[in-house]
Amino acid sequence: MITGGSRGIGAAVARGAVERGYAVGVGYAHDDAAAERLRADLPGIVTVRADVAEPAAVRTLFDTTEATLGPVTAVVNNAGVTGPLGPFRDASADTFRRVLDVNVLGTMLCAQEAVRRWEERGTAGRMVNVSSVAATLGAPGEYVHYAASKAAVEAFTVGLAKEVAPHGVRVNAVAPGTVHTDIHAAAGEPDRPARVVARVPMGRIAEPEEIAAAVLWLLSDEASYVTGAVLRASGGV
Ligand code: NAP
Description:
By secondary structure, the protein is α/β, with parallel strands linked by helices. The protein is built from nine helices and six strands; from the N terminus they run αβαβαβαβααβαααβ. It has a four-stranded parallel β-sheet with strand order 3-4-5-6, sandwiched between helices. A two-stranded parallel ribbon has the order 1-2.
């Protein structure tokens, strides 16, 4: 089950997961048309409109996915928002609240729903939380509130991984650098990737599939001894 899986990095994870034989459920927030397009590309997936910041919607996301595909065994907490780009002094309390609600509360609600179900059923579940290099770089002048929310996701990943490791559950994070997706347009600067590419040691911006590959490796048995890790997929940033 992939939150925010209808577009961008989440949709690339969905495509890669289907290729690897997973039955895939995808959550999204508003864009029914994008979810419809993904369903046309990947027949057999389940798409559920569910805002991860709403506890009832998170339960519905799991229930609907499980009703069609069977028990969830792997979760990718990918849904995330930045709010508008700009200096911290200009950002609004509403922006702080929404970014924290989606990125932090949403990740925690989905993670809790998953680990409760896994512990009840004795499932050795696997979870990957999508962070950002902003968590360690701070995103000054752009969205420091977003960077702080991703630092929370990373601390949460480390703590939850230790708490659930005795149950055989693995929890990791991927911290992408800049990726070609619509998130930059939503933040108010569609061409942001072209502006920031000069900071990237590898000299280019990532494609969503390159982040998806890291997520899918962490979910796989090849990562069987990896938990509590934050894997940077950032071109060296
Ligand atoms: P994106 O292209 O903007 O897509 C965001 C996805 O999340 C969409 O499917 C969207 O659904 C969904 N979503 C947004 N708010 C949601 C909510 N409240 N509940 C459920 N779903 C929600 O984003 P992206 O660039 O792929 O980013 C995915 C993740 O990677 C985020 O956590 C982001 O912070 C992180 N990340 C991205 C970059 C980058 O450069 N792109 C870099 C580092 C980290 P709708 O289509 O319905 O709106």
